[in-house]
Design brief:
Structural class: alpha+beta
Strand content: 25-35%
Number of strands: 5
Strand order of the largest sheet: 1-2-3-5-4
Radius of gyration: 15 Å
Number of helices: 4
Order of helices and strands: EHHEEHHEE
């Protein structure tokens, strides 16, 4: 088995406030821009991150602004690995939650997981009621001479 080389890593914890969705997007964009990708690809990755962090804030913590979201990005030679974790209410039925148009809140469209799945190569959700949720997003990236 080949071990991947870590090119960069950022771990941060921020409060579950809506303005920190933008912070997660900026961190992600700063790291992902080091690959030779299009602006559309970069925007897709940022949207996936926005949806993931928003889910932690809105659903995981039910908009409690004093809780903490754990956000981690690891850049390998050929992959972007993003983890978003909350210690919130958790998800009772992950398969149901990942269905298009499913939402526990009537005013929400329920497209967050669909967006993440369409923009990323892999979306992994680990959750249990009362124990929070860990969301892992993976995106294959082009290997360049400078990496």
């Amino acid at each position: 088995m080949m071990t991947k080389t870590i090119q960069n890593r950022v771990n941060t914890i921020f409060l579950s406030r809506p303005e920190n969705v933008a912070l997660a997007r900026v961190i992600t964009a700063s790291l992902a821009a080091n690959w030779d990708i299009t602006l559309t690809q970069l925007e897709d990755i940022k949207v996936a991150v926005s949806e993931g962090v928003s889910n932690a804030i809105i659903h995981g913590y039910e908009n409690n602004p004093e809780k903490e979201v754990y956000f981690s990005i690891i850049c390998y030679d050929d992959e972007l690995f993003i983890e978003i974790k909350d210690n919130g209410v958790g998800i009772a039925d992950i398969n149901q939650a990942m269905q298009p148009s499913f939402s526990t809140q009537e005013e929400r469209m329920g497209l967050g997981f669909s967006f993440m799945q369409s923009f990323m190569d892999e979306v992994i959700v680990v959750s249990a009621p009362g124990e929070g949720t860990t969301l892992t997003l993976k995106k294959k990236m082009p290997v360049t001479e400078s990496r």
